[in-house]
Amino acid sequence: MGRRLGVLVHGAGWVSTQHTEAFGRNPHTEVVAISSRKIESARRRAAEAGLDVPCFSSLEKALRTPGVDIVSICTPQHVHAENVLAAAAAGKHLVIEKPVGNSPAELQAIEIYGDRGTVRDNRIGSHRLPGQTGWVQIPTILPGSSDVTHHPFQAQMDHFVECVQQDRGPHCNLEDAVHTHEVVFAAQECYRTGRPVRLPLG
Question: Which domains does the chain have, with CATH numbers?
Answer without folding.
Answer: 5-101+148-171 (3.40.50.720)
